[in-house]
Amino acid sequence: MIRYFFVVVVGACVALVFELATTAITAADLITFGALVGCTTVCVEAMRRLGMPAGISRDLLGAWWLPTFLLLPPLYALLIPIPIYALHQFRVRRTLVFRRVFNAATVALSGYVTSTLSHSVGGGVTPNLTGLSDFTAYPLEFSGQGLLTSIICGGLFTLLDTVLIVTAVRLSAPETPWRDLLWDREDLLVDTAELCMGIMVTILCGISLVLVVIALPSVLLLHRSLLFQQLQTAARTDPKTGLLNATTWQSEAEAELSRALQVGRPMAVLILDIDHFKRVNDTYGHLFGDQVLIGVANTITHQLRQTDVVGRFGGEEFVVLLPDADMAEACRVAERLRSRVGRMALPVDETTVTITISVGVALLAVHGRDLIELMAAADLALYRAKDAGRDRVCMPVTSNLTVSGPPDVRRRGSAAREFGGRSAAAE
């Protein structure tokens, strides 16, 4: 990961030095560059005022980057990320400097390749600084070959930037599946909107640079709408794992439980806890502990149905609601999760660390009829699993299923019985 970081950053710096030495600086290019940076600054300030969600977020700044790549020499594609990410760092939210540097370098390299290709095929347009053009004199070739070139270049920039970022994420978290890092339907829609807005701004600049004032409110409105949606999502999810947070999970779980009670459907609740997580943090550091949380969350998510409700309950605990799951199904799912997490091997300090989990299971109508009772029963079963040696699954046994006997037998019956671990198949 460190070697990859330096390759990307040094590559962008070398390209910048080369372009500074070979590109002729003109007043027209500087004016256009300044106008596009100014519009981008307005969007960044809007982000600051609205607020930024924690973690990875999407924006529409590419609507201003793409005209820079298509209208101006490649030098400016390398320059424009510098002031924008500096604004991000000092005006929006401070974060680790190397992350800002790496993000700027990926945009710079992707834009540099895009700009070089655009100018080599001659499909771009020249910004008009003198006022409105006569529409009859507008270059018709841009509506044909030039427009197609712009679309291809815009798609190329998106592809290159995504590949550079995804490669970095994959190197830092090898357990993350590729399908989670590439486009989903929402990402594809955002990238398409960004491309369309970028081409619109490019065309307006070709008619007259003054017309960017018309494009600015449209881009700003879409930008704010996108951020508002992400802020709403961020309020429902855990920032580290991307799962539902405890409050949202409880709300959705109560709604599912109410529906299940009305129609008489079975349902199960699982509580999962990472074994010896404090020891992992103390030994390898909290950053590696975060990677463990992310890896466990991803593994759990990919072993569940879309109808299952999974969230992070706090610390190293996760909760899962399984609609339409009877005792046998709940046991199978819990054991599958335990087994899959146990196969994880996370690299750290030239070695690998194996992670295990303990799971407590509770069934609707058997161990409780409301969410609090189910959570209490599953939590009790979880701690019995830990007391029994960890890396296993336990289910509580209700008092009405407990046979009569000495007080110690009755206490065990009202607590929990183990069926997980290596004996799960027999159970």
TrEMBL record:
InterPro entries for the chain: Diguanylate_Cyclase (IPR050469), GGDEF_dom (IPR000160), Nucleotide_cyclase (IPR029787), Rev_trsase/Diguanyl_cyclase (IPR043128)
Domain GGDEF: residue ranges: 265-398
UniProt keyword annotations, A-Z: Membrane, Transmembrane, Transmembrane helix
Region (Disordered): 404-427
Transmembrane segments: 64-87, 147-172, 192-222
Presence of keyword Magnesium: no
A GO BP entry: cell adhesion involved in single-species biofilm formation
GO function terms (MF aspect): diguanylate cyclase activity
Pfam families in alphabetical order: GGDEF
Keyword Membrane: yes
GO cellular component terms listed in the entry, alphabetical order: plasma membrane
Protein name: GGDEF domain-containing protein
Organism: Marinitenerispora sediminis
